């Protein structure tokens, strides 16, 4: 009787064990994830991609990695900005954001070499080192204004190469802020203002030079025009023009007009073709 009473209990226990085993043997990998299978602690080279997978309960386990784009902020707000030195040895503080994702086909290598906390062990340290190496090649003035975009691209290119060796893809790098010491900023701004004033003065001088050249050219044109006109005033032309003028004045409604002096040939005495000092 006791054996018969125990049988149902054993069957229930057996079914429970089977159910647990079946439950543990089925593993679902969601979209945006990749799984690394461990068999008795040893990493399997075949990654598990989205879908349902069968694993051996208590022998195999699965570690999940995200394949989505992730973000790391290294800023003052997150209390871990990057400090570096310029080529002159002056301190610079930078706020940087890195967008990255792992190479899904290399998830097993990432787990084997760095574990699940690879971001702390690899990405952050390499980002700091890369930023510091790049900043050391720039002058402090370039970091303040003119070469900010170039600096960001240089950091991105070098970081992308380095992290790819760790099977991590850099999607983008955002240089959010570059802060310099207050006294350095004041000196740079003073230098920029002086440069702007020098450029402004250079523009004014050039404008005045061009205006002077224009006036000289205009004066030469007027002088040449007067010379041509003076040379074209012959005696016969002046006699004819004088008589024509008298005729027009005589026929005009004006009662008063002025007649200029003339010689015995009816040529107006206008000092034509004579120097300024001759009377």
Please give a structural write-up:
This protein has 279 residues and is α+β, with helices and mostly antiparallel strands. The protein folds into three domains: 8-66, no CATH class; 70-187, Tetrahydropterin Synthase, Chain A, CATH 3.30.479.30; 234-274, no CATH class. Helix content is 50%, strand content 22%. It is built from seven helices and nine strands. It has helices at 2-25, 107-114, 118-135, 140-144, 148-164, 182-232, 235-251; strands at 26-29, 33-39, 42-48, 51-54, 60-66, 70-74, 82-85, 91-102, 168-179. The strands form three sheets. Strands 6, 7, 8 and 9 form a four-stranded antiparallel beta sheet that branches. Strand 7 and strand 8 (91-102) form a beta hairpin. The longest helix has 51 residues, at 182-232. Residues 272-279 have low confidence and may be disordered.
What is the CATH class of the largest domain? Alpha Beta
Question: The biggest beta sheet, please?
Answer: 4 strands, antiparallel
Given helix and strand content, the structural type is alpha+beta
Helix % is 40-55%
The overall pLDDT average reads 82
Our count of helices gives 7
CATH third-level topology of the largest domain? Tetrahydropterin Synthase, Chain A
For CATH, the homologous superfamily of the largest domain is named as Band 7 domain
Sum this structure up briefly.
The chain has three domains: 8-66, no CATH class; 70-187, Tetrahydropterin Synthase, Chain A; 234-274, no CATH class. The chain contains seven helices and nine strands. It has helices spanning 2-25, 107-114, 118-135, 140-144, 148-164, 182-232, 235-251, and strands at residues 26-29, 33-39, 42-48, 51-54, 60-66, 70-74, 82-85, 91-102, 168-179.
């Amino acid at each position: 009787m006791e054996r018969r009473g125990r049988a149902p209990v054993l069957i229930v226990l057996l079914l429970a064990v089977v159910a647990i085993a079946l439950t543990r043997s089925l593993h679902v990998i969601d979209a945006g994830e990749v799984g690394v299978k461990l068999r008795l602690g040893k990493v399997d080279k075949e990654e598990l991609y989205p879908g349902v997978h069968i694993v051996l309960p208590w022998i195999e386990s699965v570690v999940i990695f995200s394949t989505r784009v992730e973000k790391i902020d290294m800023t003052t707000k997150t209390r871990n900005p990057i400090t570096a030195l310029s080529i002159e040895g002056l301190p610079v503080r930078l706020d940087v954001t890195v967008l990255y994702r792992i190479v899904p086909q290399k998830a097993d290598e990432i787990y084997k070499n760095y574990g699940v906390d690879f971001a702390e062990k690899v990405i952050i340290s390499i980002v700091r080192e890369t930023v510091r190496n790049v900043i050391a090649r720039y002058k402090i003035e370039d970091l303040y204004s003119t070469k900010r975009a170039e600096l960001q691209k240089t950091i991105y290119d070098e970081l992308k190469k380095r992290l790819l060796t760790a099977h991590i893809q850099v999607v983008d790098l955002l240089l959010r802020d570059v802060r310099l010491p207050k006294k350095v900023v004041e000196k740079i701004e003073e230098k920029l203002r002086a440069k702007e004033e020098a450029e402004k003065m250079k523009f004014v001088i050039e404008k005045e030079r061009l205006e002077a050249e224009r006036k000289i050219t205009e004066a030469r044109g007027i002088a040449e025009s007067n010379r041509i006109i003076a040379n074209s005033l012959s005696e016969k032309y002046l006699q004819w023009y004088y008589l024509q003028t008298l005729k027009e004045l005589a026929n005009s409604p004006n009662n008063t007009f002025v007649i200029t002096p003339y010689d015995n040939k009816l040529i107006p005495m206008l000092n034509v073709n004579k120097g300024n000092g001759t009377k």
